């Protein structure tokens, strides 16, 4: 009986070994699939939300209206360098509970400014979808917030802007064939709706460009308007509208108090005709209200629309869109806007260029080292450790099996050799505990997008 007890305590059955090996293999697959193998489908009318050092992408469609695209949920880590030709995407689709959709609006908000809020949009095949969702980026969990009112209607093809107080501003948009010019305001902290004024507001529109240019104003340009009596028109960029968030009123062509700010426009379309690369980039000076085509260097990409744009450090990060060829241009475009005299198209994103250098005693990474090589090295290192543990576990299993053969030949308890037997058993148990401890420590114009040079939060 004592021998059987020792054998069961020392030697796990075959199923336990298989379970351990299976867990290691699953960990290996998860590490590699979520850091190196995920390649999102090309899309447009998606959302791109910058929270801390990550840009979260959700929703969208392609020409085939693929539902899979609307379900994909992933992010781009902008805390590390990367090359747009070999991007390391991080897949969060397994955490996604939002129905497949297009043309929603999103911002970062909440009490800690680390929550993604998603409003509106159009579902695929009339699937049921809540008006607002929230995603906790710290716990990777979606929820449906309990809002103050049910009277707000669902709209699409509009943009969300968040202020420094966590309020999400939603102007205009489209619903059931109608364009609107109202201002919905969602307080992402108190979860209460407010309604802004429509006095002197722009005409009803969707697919406009917008940006937060100061602590008081949101700027709106362009867009699309259509009624049942016409096929729709792209709205002029000659009129610029400002919404004063503090006092709830609209202004047109007002530059007072907005000195030395610029709006950079990329892409868009004119009456559903895609722009040429040379027509795709403009700058509006908000001091003298003059449009200009900036001097640029680097390889000029083709134009696109139904894309998204975020500002991270000195880069304008343009994501996906419609009208570009994946064989020619990348899903992510980078425009270095640090030099007002000359912007530069580049493939290399390096957030460390504007940050303080690390202490001299800390190891440094060459700025010319592509991020994919660094991450690939980390992935390889992780794989090597896991494979080594698998091999080591297998040989330990064989060693213990052989040892059991010897144990069965030892005297039973109470014999003259009892002390040697107990000592040998303790030695095996000690090694087994070290092995188990090692396992436990394994780390388980229309559609124009533009930015201002002094604001880095979207």
Structural description of this entry:
Pfam families: Kelch_KLHDC2_KLHL20_DRC7 (PF24681). The chain crosses the membrane at residues 373-397. Keywords: Kelch repeat, Membrane, Repeat, Transmembrane, Transmembrane helix. This protein has 458 residues and is an alpha+beta fold. The chain folds into 2 domains: 2-28 and 373-440, no CATH class; 40-371, Kelch-type beta propeller (Neuraminidase). It contains 5 helices and 33 strands. The protein has helices at residues 2-10, 14-37, 67-71, 371-408, 418-440, and strands at 47-51, 54-58, 73-77, 82-83, 89-91, 101-102, 105-109, 115-119, 122-123, 132-136, 141-143, 160-162, 167-175, 178-187, 192-195, 209-212, 217-221, 224-225, 233-234, 240-244, 249-252, 262-266, 269-270, 273-274, 281-285, 290-292, 296-297, 308-312, 315-319, 332-336, 343-346, 348-349, 449-452. The strands form 10 sheets. It has a 5-stranded mixed sheet with strand order 27-31-30-29-28, with no helix packed on it. The chain has a 4-stranded antiparallel sheet with strand order 1-2-3-5. Strands 7-8-10-11 form a 4-stranded antiparallel sheet, with no helix packed on it. Strand 7 and strand 8 form a beta hairpin. Helix 2 (14-37) runs antiparallel to helix 4 and helix 4 packs antiparallel against helix 5 (418-440). The longest helix has 38 residues, at 371-408. The protein is globular, with a radius of gyration of 29 Å. The termini are far apart. Mean pLDDT is 75; it is low at 1-11, 28-36, 255-260, 358-387, 403-444 and 452-458.
């Amino acid at each position: 009986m004592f021998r059987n007890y020792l054998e069961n305590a020392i030697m796990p059955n075959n199923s336990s070994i298989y379970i351990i090996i299976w867990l290691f293999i699953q960990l290996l697959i998860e590490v590699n699939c979520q850091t190196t193998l995920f390649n999102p489908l090309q899309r447009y009318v998606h959302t791109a939300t910058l929270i801390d050092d990550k840009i979260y992408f959700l929703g969208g469609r392609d020409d085939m209206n693929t539902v899979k695209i609307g379900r994909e949920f992933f992010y781009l880590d902008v805390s590390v360098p990367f090359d747009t030709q070999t991007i390391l995407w991080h897949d969060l689709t397994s955490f996604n509970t939002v129905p497949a959709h297009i043309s929603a609006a999103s911002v970062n908000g909440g009490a800690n400014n680390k929550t993604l809020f998603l409003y509106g949009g159009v579902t695929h095949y009339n699937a049921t979808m809540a008006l607002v969702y929230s995603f906790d980026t710290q716990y990777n969990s979606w929820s449906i917030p309990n809002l103050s009112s049910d009277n707000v209607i669902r709209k699409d093809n509009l943009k969300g802007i968040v202020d420094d107080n966590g309020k999400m501003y939603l102007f205009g948009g489209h619903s059931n064939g109608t364009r609107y010019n109202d201002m919905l305001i969602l307080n992402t902290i108190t979860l209460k709706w407010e309604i802004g004024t429509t006095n002197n507001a722009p005409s009803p529109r969707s697919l406009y460009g917008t940006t937060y240019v100061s602590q008081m104003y949101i700027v709106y340009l362009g867009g699309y308007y259509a009624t049942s009596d016409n096929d729709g028109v792209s709205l002029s960029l000659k009129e610029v509208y400002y919404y004063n968030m503090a006092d709830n009123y609209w202004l047109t062509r007002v530059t007072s108090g907005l000195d030395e700010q610029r709006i950079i426009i990329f892409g868009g379309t004119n009456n559903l005709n895609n722009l040429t690369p040379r027509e795709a980039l403009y700058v509006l000076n908000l001091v003298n209200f003059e449009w200009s085509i900036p001097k640029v260097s680097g390889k000029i990409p083709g134009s696109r629309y139904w894309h998204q744009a975020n500002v991270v450090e000195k880069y304008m990060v343009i994501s996906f869109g419609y009208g570009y060829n994946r064989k020619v241009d990348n899903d992510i475009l980078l425009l270095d806007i640090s030099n007002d005299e000359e912007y530069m198209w580049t493939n290399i994103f390096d957030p460390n260029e504007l940050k303080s250098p690390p202490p001299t005693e800390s190891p440094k990474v060459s700025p010319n080292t592509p991020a994919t090589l660094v991450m690939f090295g980390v992935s390889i290192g992780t794989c090597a450790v896991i494979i080594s543990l698998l091999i080591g576990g297998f040989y330990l299993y064989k060693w213990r099996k052989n040892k059991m053969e010897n144990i069965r030949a030892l005297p039973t308890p109470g014999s003259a050799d009892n002390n040697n037997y107990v000592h040998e058993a303790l030695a095996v148990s000690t090694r087994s505990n070290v092995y188990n401890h090692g396992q436990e420590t394994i780390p388980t114009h229309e559609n124009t997008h533009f930015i201002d040079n002094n604001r880095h939060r979207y």
